[in-house]
């Protein structure tokens, strides 16, 4: 399954506004991804946008007519801007030019898109794209600040090479970031609204010397999917991430760590302001007793390493929780096993006083590290639930649903 697809987008009505900038072509990919995720997409193009691309790609992807004319009448004779504004669950403008941002900030309604925006009570997501100097101009910054104060969600712009050939901040945010913003605003009143969720992800790295380290095969995909699913459910999410190649999820506070010790410090330091802890990271159980200050050179014979135990983060959490030193309502652990999966997972559940543990056989080719799917069993003190093979994004949503249900019964 494609990373970024989410249940929250299934059946959502998205009005996508496309304005006249060179980045308009990127909105085609956004439209495609929204449709693939099950959303209904109505596209409004400004007249300026039609100078950069035609309506045909959007109509082909959305299977709906593209609206352009301010005074166009729909089949039922309703005014287009009123019909679209009432239909929308979210209004997304990508790219949003400096001109359109200025119009929105001052309440102008001189085309179909700005008229729809003025009439629309659904959340507004803006993905600005323009020259770096235009973005940095005080007028643009004041307009963005006004819109943010009114509740608009701003995505980007990003730093990089611009159409002018210059480098600077002004690039349209990547599609996954815009999708993340859409998902966040759609889920802001979800079952975890107001809950503070901390998720750990990735495999820690324990350095041997300046160029080598001991680690594991964790890609971080499961943890990142859990962070996004928690955000989609309305939670305030902090992601403590070991090194990965994954982009930071939109709307999630991310804390980058490297070692097991750094991860322990980040987790334990946040317990008093955390309601739910989901420990999906693959934390090293051992680290080198000594880290060489210089690269260890190849020598004749074997090399013997002495390893020492790292802190057991979940055990430390359990101790603090029992002592009343943590504000946690729920703790979820993971058991990545290669044999006696359920027995080992239940033992861990009981020893570390977890509320739920997610067990999976990482020796299976389609389940575990470095792949996009996982087959897991959810265990609690009262029972267990075997799940089919799922995309990690889907499994994350199931886990978050169970967490929300457990909190509802707490």
How is the topology of this model organized?
Elements: E1 13-18, H1 26-36, E2 40-45, H2 56-62, H3 80-87, E3 90-96, H4 98-105, H5 112-119, E4 124-128, H6 132-136, H7 138-149, E5 153-154, E6 158-161, E7 167-171, H8 175-186, E8 196-201, E9 206-207, E10 213-214, H9 221-232, E11 236-241, E12 253-256, H10 260-269, E13 276-279, E14 286-288, E15 307-309, H11 313-322, E16 330-337, H12 341-351, E17 356-361, E18 373-374, E19 376-380, E20 383-386, E21 390-391, H13 392-408
Parallel strand pairs: 1-2, 1-3, 3-4, 4-5, 8-11, 8-13, 11-12, 13-16, 16-17
Antiparallel strand pairs: 6-7, 9-10, 14-15, 17-19, 18-21, 19-20
Helix pairs in contact: 1-2, 1-8, 3-5, 4-7, 9-13
Distance N to C terminus: 33 Å
- Mean pLDDT metric: 90
Oligomeric state = single chain
Detail the poorly predicted runs.
1-5
- Given the C-alpha coordinates, what overall shape results? globular
Number of extended strands: 21
Number of helices: 13
The profile of the biggest β sheet is:
8 strands, mixed
Strand order of the largest sheet: 12-11-8-13-16-17-19-20
Helix content: 25-40%
Rg, rounded, reads: 24 Å
Structural class: alpha/beta
């Amino acid at each position: 399954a494609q990373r970024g697809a989410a249940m929250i987008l299934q059946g959502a009505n998205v009005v996508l506004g496309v304005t006249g900038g060179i980045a308009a072509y990127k909105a085609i990919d956004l439209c495609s991804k929204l449709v693939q995720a099950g959303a209904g997409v109505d596209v409004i193009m400004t007249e300026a946008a039609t100078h950069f691309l035609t309506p045909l790609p959007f109509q082909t992807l959305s299977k709906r007519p593209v609206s352009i004319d301010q005074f166009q009448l729909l089949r039922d004779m309703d005014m287009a801007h009123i019909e679209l504004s009432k239909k929308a669950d979210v209004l997304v403008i990508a790219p949003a030019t400096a001109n359109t941002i200025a119009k929105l900030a001052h309440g102008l309604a001189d085309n179909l898109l700005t008229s729809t925006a003025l009439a629309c009570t659904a959340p507004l997501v803006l993905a600005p794209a323009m020259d770096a100097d235009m973005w940095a101009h005080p007028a643009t910054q004041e307009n963005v600040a006004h819109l943010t104060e009114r509740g608009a969600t701003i995505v980007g712009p990003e730093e990089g090479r611009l159409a002018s050939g210059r480098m600077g901040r002004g690039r349209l945010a990547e599609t996954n970031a815009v999708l993340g913003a859409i998902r966040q605003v759609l889920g802001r009143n979800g079952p975890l609204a107001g809950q503070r969720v901390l998720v750990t992800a990735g495999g820690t790295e324990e350095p041997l010397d300046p160029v080598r380290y001991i680690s594991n095969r964790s890609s971080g995909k499961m943890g990142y999917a859990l962070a996004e699913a928690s955000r989609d459910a309305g939670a305030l999410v902090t992601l403590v991430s070991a090194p990965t190649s994954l982009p930071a999820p939109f709307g999630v506070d991310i804390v980058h760590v490297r070692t097991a010790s750094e991860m322990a410090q980040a987790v334990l330091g946040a317990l008093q302001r955390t309601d739910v802890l989901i420990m999906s990271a693959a934390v090293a159980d051992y680290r080198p007793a000594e880290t060489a200050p210089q690269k260890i050179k190849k020598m004749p014979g074997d090399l013997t390493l002495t390893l020492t135990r790292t802190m057991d983060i979940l055990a430390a959490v359990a101790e603090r929780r029992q002592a009343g030193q943590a504000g946690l309502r729920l703790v979820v652990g993971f058991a990545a096993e290669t044999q006696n999966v359920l027995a080992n997972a239940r033992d861990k559940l009981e020893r570390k006083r977890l509320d739920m543990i997610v067990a999976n056989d990482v020796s299976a080719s389609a389940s575990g590290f470095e792949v996009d799917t996982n087959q897991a069993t959810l265990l609690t003190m009262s029972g267990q639930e075997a799940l089919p093979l799922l995309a990690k994004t889907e499994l994350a949503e199931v886990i978050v649903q169970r967490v929300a249900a457990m909190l509802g019964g707490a």
